[in-house]
Amino acid sequence: MHPSRSLLDVRISNCYYTHNMSSGYPTATIISTKEDMIYQISFLEKYCASYTPLIISLVAILLVIFNIILASIIHRFRWKIRYWYYVGYNKEIKHKGYSTIESSLRDLIFKYDLYLAYEDDVKEIVFDILKPKLLDLEYTVFTHDDILDGLPLYNVITKSIHASRVVVFVLSNGPRDSLEWKIAAHITNEESNHRQKPMSVALFYNSDSTVGLPEELQLLRRNAFIDYPVNGSEQEITAFWEDFITYIKRN
């Protein structure tokens, strides 16, 4: 500023702002009052401000929101995702009206008539009564106790249920919270949706609770419930097996 003049001649050097965009240099800005100075300072602060931190913050917030939404979707459909992960890319073979898988599991082809799902408290009825009788009737049966140690439960149970015509849930008054039971219940529900028809039966052994059953069986399949006659007569046992086989053949 010249000592003999009352005007301050300012040129913008770091942040160019020109009305004439064809010019490579900024135009002169004349400041004659304090208000002009305050206005120009305010203008330059706004015009030359860096929005990089704001943009980075907004992008980070959007990424967090996206990850939360994605995690929620994955959690909601986790069983469907697992089902298609283990089943979707396997070769399917039609066998007597239901699908089987040519699996990489020891080069076996799963062709089960029944998958028996149960908890430890009903192992006695499963292995002393149900499975021997079904084998005598020439049904092929799979249970999670048939899984060899070290093999992945999700993989084997999913493929076994996919290759089974019917899943039978044996229910007692005990808890239904084992990993094998949870996998069987959820995968049966997904498999039933995939086939677009019911594929499960609930066999009650001294119990009347439907807690832990697949959704499609618990809510829609009341006609697929059957009671085992504990301490029943020979006639009652015979009638049970006739009804049980009828239930199986419906699927």
UniProtKB/TrEMBL annotation:
Asked whether the keyword Transmembrane helix is assigned, the reply is yes
Q: Which InterPro entries match?
A: TIR_dom, Toll_tir_struct_dom_sf
Q: Which domain of life is it from?
A: Eukaryota
Answer whether the UniProt record assigns the keyword Transmembrane helix to this protein. yes
In the record, biological process GO terms are: signal transduction
Query: Domain named TIR: which ranges?
Result: 111-209
Q: Which UniProt keywords apply?
A: Membrane, Transmembrane, Transmembrane helix
User: So where does this one cross the membrane?
Assistant: 54-74
This one is known as TIR domain-containing protein
Q: Which organism is it from?
A: Dreissena polymorpha (Zebra mussel)
Supply the source organism's classification: Eukaryota, Metazoa, Spiralia, Lophotrochozoa, Mollusca
